[in-house]
Each structure stands twice: as C-alpha cells, then as structure tokens.
Amino acid sequence: MEKLKEYAAVCTVGSVGYSAIEVLWRGFTHWTMALTGGVGFLLLYLTDLRMTGRSMLQKCAAGSLVLTAVEFVAGCIINRGCRLGVWDYSRRKGNLLGQICPLYSALWFLLCIPVLPLSRALRERLCQGGSGRRIETA
C-alpha cells in the first residue's frame, strides 16, 4: 500500500508539473498530457532509482529515451488511434510517424537535468516514515 501511495504522489507531481511546463511552452495543454506527464515522471523516478551510482549524463540519456518512448506510445494512442491531434511533428526532421523527433528527444534530455534531482528530493520526502526513518524504495 505504501508503494501505491508513493507512485500516486509521483504521478500527481508529474501530471501537474508537465501540464504547467506545456502551458509555459505552448500556451495551452490537453488533459491527455496530464496523464502522459504523470506516467513519464513515474518512469523517470523509477529510472533514477535503478541508476543509482550512474553519472548524470547517463541518467539524462536514459531519461530522454524513456520520455521519447512514452511520447511515442502516447502519440500513437492519442493522436493516431483516438485522432485527437494533440501534437504533430510530421514536419520536423527525423520524425517517426509524426509522434517523436530528435529535437524533442534532445529537449527531454535537457529537461532531465532539473527533473532528476527533483525526483530524488521527492523520493527522500516520500520515503520518510512518520518516525523519520527511511522506508525501503526498491
């Protein structure tokens, strides 16, 4: 039950955070991006946990791959399957089905620089029991 609460909190932070970033970047967002942001942040959170001891460069590269994969899957469902047209990268160089492109993969890498330390700080906060002792996260 503790893991479920932890993961729900992480998803909520990712959902709100990504929606805010998108509003700042594009001027608007879509409700599906809140879901996608929550899933993406949870996967980044877990990636950071699994990569303890690795360099920030390695973690950002892994984070970029994870977020690009989330964007591709979400795009295939949201844009292609449901035909909602939330985003379209088909005019971007190197795009795959208009859902992902190298430019945004590079931006995901850069976004990981501040987000991964946020993930660690959130984990530290969430993994403190009421008594102040650490709760296992793995």
Helix content: 55-70%
Q: Order of SSEs, N→C?
A: HHHH
Envelope shape: globular
- Summarize the biggest pleated sheet: none
Structural class by secondary-structure content: mainly alpha
User: Radius of gyration over alpha carbons?
Assistant: 16 Å
What is the total number of structural domains? 1
Provide mean pLDDT, rounded: 92
Terminus-to-terminus distance: 14 Å
Strand content: under 5%
Number of strands: 0
Low-confidence stretches: 130-135
**Number of helical segments with 4 or more residues:** 4
Tell me about this structure.
By secondary structure, this protein is mainly α. It has one domain. The chain contains 4 helices and no strands. Helix 2 crosses helix 4. The longest helix has 26 residues. About 4% of the residues have low confidence.
Features:
single chain, 138 residues, mainly alpha, globular, membrane, CmpB_TMEM229, transmembrane, transmembrane helix, ABC-transporter type IV
SSE inventory with pairings:
Blueprint lengths: L1 H25 L4 H20 L5 H26 L20 H25 L12
InterPro entries: CmpB_TMEM229
Protein name: ABC-transporter type IV
Keywords: Membrane, Transmembrane, Transmembrane helix
